[in-house]
UniProtKB/TrEMBL annotation:
Main location: membrane
Database matches in Pfam families: TauE (PF01925)
Family of this protein: Belongs to the 4-toluene sulfonate uptake permease (TSUP) (TC 2.A.102) family.
A molecular function (GO) term: transferase activity
GO CC term, one of those recorded: plasma membrane
Organism: Metallibacterium scheffleri
Protein name (database record): Probable membrane transporter protein
Amino acid sequence: MLFDLVLYLLAGATAGLLGGLLGIGGGLLIVAALSFTLPALGVPPSEVMHVSVATSLAGIVLTAASSTTAQLRRKAVMLPTLWRLAPGLVLGGFIGAHLAQLMSGPVLRWVIAGFCLFMAWRMAFGHQHEVRAEHVPRSSWLLPAGLGIGAVSAIVGIGGGSLTVPLLVSLGVKPVRAVATSAAAGLVIALASSLSYMLALHAPALPLPRGALGYVFLPAAAATALASMVTAPLGVRLAHRLSGPALKRVFAAFLLVVGVLIVSGG
């Protein structure tokens, strides 16, 4: 248990740093860490990835809250854009959580790993969009885009930064502002999707460890969240000092490593 706790704290601290730096809650890193430790706690192999995803999202709530607070203080969050995304993010979070519960453990593992590797490639080699300072997206499809982002995020256990940041940058938002807004969007996604996993009706019948609420393993969620809250403000400060291309390279390397870790955990 001590080793597990240390791993959760380290994963949470790293997730918080990445949450502030890249606009993500570090959920994929936490999913990877949990997928290695949960089997030793008696979680059935068929449910390991589901519990990992749900627990990651619950931890992201505090991680994203910490990052969002820091970004709001810097007045970097584009609130009009966030309000246009939010309804879709909430609905998508509930839908995605339900779809993930219908998937088998191996299928969910490969979906998550494939997502990591695809996004790493996209961030490293994707098209560079023109960036206009202080541009506020007014696209009519921000609502359906939010629906898709929320659903995918709930399935793979993330706050959606790997989707929201590229979307906003493609609409002409400066990378630092896109990161700030995606952190706030991640809070919305994590709240909706983790609530859905907690309320899963069939989860209480599964042989999950003590401390589980629905699919959420509360001790791990608390440990990762508390550690992440300490390091998230540091990530925000670093984000405002690094250039856009530097942020993208860090993001791509992070996703590549985590994708490999998740595959190897199978």
